[in-house]
Amino acid sequence: MNIALIAHDKKKDNLIRFVQKYKSIFTNHQLFATGTTGQRIIDETGLDVHRFQSGPLGGDQEIGAFIANHKMDLILFFRDPLTAQPHEPDVSALIRLCDVYSVPLATNNGTAEILVKAVERGEVENRSTLKKNEREEGN
Ligand SMILES: O=C(CO)COP(=O)(O)O
């Protein structure tokens, strides 16, 4: 399963703690992240992470492109709702694409807890498999 991990600056500590807590689950999946978030996860958890550009430099859009190509199965995006982001349009576009493609998205710790437990139980669908099945069924 391809999982994207993203956190705004004031939520990065929060995300790191979350990834450490569920490291045994994350270790079984392919992890992707925006640049700074990804580097911190690598440094502080030892997990293998594919890093995109930093969010303000296009990282959110790169993850969006993966979503549009059915290559991202889950997004955990620890957003900071109290700080204006210079790349707010990119943030909105990423969230919009999750809705366009029905990709599960958590924007806070509480929802992320629920989703990661669903991943552990094997309840989150793999997008590429889902797309292949739809093609075969002619949808
Ligand atoms: O800004 C971000 C998401 O919108 C996160 O980017 P960084 O992980 O590079 O800080």
UniProtKB/TrEMBL annotation:
<comment type="similarity">
    <text>Belongs to the methylglyoxal synthase family.</text>
</comment>
<feature type="binding site">
    <location>
        <begin position="54"/>
        <end position="55"/>
    </location>
    <ligand>
        <name>substrate</name>
    </ligand>
</feature>
<feature type="binding site">
    <location>
        <position position="8"/>
    </location>
    <ligand>
        <name>substrate</name>
    </ligand>
</feature>
<dbReference type="InterPro" id="IPR011607">
    <property type="entry name" value="MGS-like_dom"/>
</dbReference>
<dbReference type="InterPro" id="IPR018148">
    <property type="entry name" value="Methylglyoxal_synth_AS"/>
</dbReference>
<protein>
    <recommendedName>
        <fullName>Methylglyoxal synthase</fullName>
        <ecNumber>4.2.3.3</ecNumber>
    </recommendedName>
</protein>
<dbReference type="InterPro" id="IPR004363">
    <property type="entry name" value="Methylgl_synth"/>
</dbReference>
<comment type="function">
    <text>Catalyzes the formation of methylglyoxal from dihydroxyacetone phosphate.</text>
</comment>
<dbReference type="GO" id="GO:0008929">
    <property type="term" value="F:methylglyoxal synthase activity"/>
</dbReference>
<feature type="binding site">
    <location>
        <position position="87"/>
    </location>
    <ligand>
        <name>substrate</name>
    </ligand>
</feature>
<feature type="binding site">
    <location>
        <position position="12"/>
    </location>
    <ligand>
        <name>substrate</name>
    </ligand>
</feature>
<feature type="active site" description="Proton donor/acceptor">
    <location>
        <position position="60"/>
    </location>
</feature>
<keyword id="KW-0456">Lyase</keyword>
<dbReference type="InterPro" id="IPR036914">
    <property type="entry name" value="MGS-like_dom_sf"/>
</dbReference>
<feature type="domain" description="MGS-like">
    <location>
        <begin position="1"/>
        <end position="139"/>
    </location>
</feature>
<dbReference type="Pfam" id="PF02142">
    <property type="entry name" value="MGS"/>
</dbReference>
<feature type="binding site">
    <location>
        <begin position="34"/>
        <end position="37"/>
    </location>
    <ligand>
        <name>substrate</name>
    </ligand>
</feature>
